[in-house]
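At your convenience, could you comment on the folded chain following this short note?
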Amino acid sequence: MSRKKSSVNYVNNQELLEAMIEYRTAWLKAKKEKKDPPRVPEYVGLCIYNIATRFATQHSYSNYPFKEDMISDGIENCIQYIHNFDPEKSKNPFAYFTQIIYYAFLRRIQKEKKYLYTKYALTQRAQILDEVSDNQYNDDSGQKGSIQQSDWSAEQMGRFMSDFETNTKKKATKKKVKKVKE
């Protein structure tokens, strides 16, 4: 069996479409009758899970330590927007869910970058405060009380922080320009 054939068929798009049509019909009926929305079918949930976990194995996401969070965000967003799938507009629920998962992954990566930036900024501030602190100069042991950061590590942190700040400023500028045009 070739690798290409086995990697493509982890979700049957036609069966998923049929399940989504049934769910959509039940959802519209419940909405019309002002009842609680129906439970997402187990098969659809399993397909969403398979799509998200398989999508996370792509090379572009291989080095992220928060892959589980990305997968969880993708699944959550798919469930949140499952009722928006319209079989009259598209016959490809696989692509619909993959797109939702893709953007959920991007949002999680941005969120984690923001956390990392905050952590690095606090680390730099803490080191500056340690250097100024009287405690280090009056320490009985004669040694500095903090762990020294390597030059490489400091350089990487600085590069990440400046890139993050540059990208944030670019995004803010784009927003301002867009508002002005509107």
About this structure: Residues 3-112 form one domain. The CA atoms of residues 78 and 97 lie 6 Å apart. The chain has a mean pLDDT of 85.
